[in-house]
Prior knowledge:
Belongs to the UbiC family. The chain has 180 residues and is an alpha+beta fold.
Amino acid sequence: MGIxxxxxxxxxxxxxxxxxxxxxRLGERFEVQVLRQGVxxxxxxxxxxxxxxxxxxxxxxxxxxxxxxxPLVWARSAVHQRATIGPWRALKGLGARPLAxxxxxxxxxxxxxxxxxxxxxxxxxxxxxERQWLAxxxxxxxxxxxxxxxxxxxxxxxxxxxxxxFAPDLAVQRPGRRGR
Length: 180
């Protein structure tokens, strides 16, 4: 396999709409593997994206998205803890259902522009994703698993940040098309 670059992942980094629905079109079985859901301190990038104060707690959901058993995306969503008793309360009972069920079926939810981002190989998010990927799949994450996209969803004044980190295997796939 070649190196996963921003250009080779461009279609995925910029694909509008539901990533889960696009991934599901690649194979027969799409699944969400929940790695963690719970309360955690804010991370600086999340706090900045959500426009939150320096202190407080966030509800975090971290998952791996799989197609026909193959792990393709590590994702992290974060919302201020207060919002889970308000506009984002359905997040608590989501379980293994895709977040897309909440985000794209409600006309009151609006999404920011997608922001592609290359992670630092040794940054906190990359190291955290690597540890979870290894524990969940039994295999080390590819050193080329560096490209992500970020966006913020707004509903009734409360915001939810979603970060999706792409496995390099997606570089050879086209969003929304079946085939391997």
